[in-house]
Write a structure and sequence with these properties.
Structural class: mainly alpha
Order of helices and strands: HH
Largest sheet: none
Strand content: under 5%
Shape: rod-shaped
Protein name: DUF904 domain-containing protein
Number of strands: 0
Keywords: Coiled coil
Distance between the termini: 98 Å
Oligomer: single chain
Number of helices: 2
Organism: Herbaspirillum aquaticum
Radius of gyration: 32 Å
Coiled coil: 12-39
């Protein structure tokens, strides 16, 4: 019976070490998720800013010249 008790105690110790390791890994993964979420938010903001800048440049393009060039290309074909 003493041998069974020692085996059980060993398994409980192993289980406790495993549980502690998993808690530490979980904490590390939570930190990584937080950092990646912050990076994602920053990148989405940069994409939005780039989109706004491109839209502003496109809005400044003269539409009439583009339409005239397209019409000239069609007539030449």
């Amino acid at each position: 019976m003493s041998s069974e008790f020692l085996q059980l105690a060993e398994k409980v110790t192993q289980l406790a070490k495993l549980a502690q390791g998993l808690r530490e890994e979980n904490a590390e993964l939570r930190r990584k998720v937080k950092l990646l979420s912050e990076d994602n938010t920053t990148l989405l903001s940069r994409v939005d800013q780039a989109y706004d800048r491109v839209a502003a440049v496109l809005a400044q393009l003269p539409v009439a010249e583009v339409e005239e060039a397209a019409a000239a290309d069609e007539e030449a074909a």
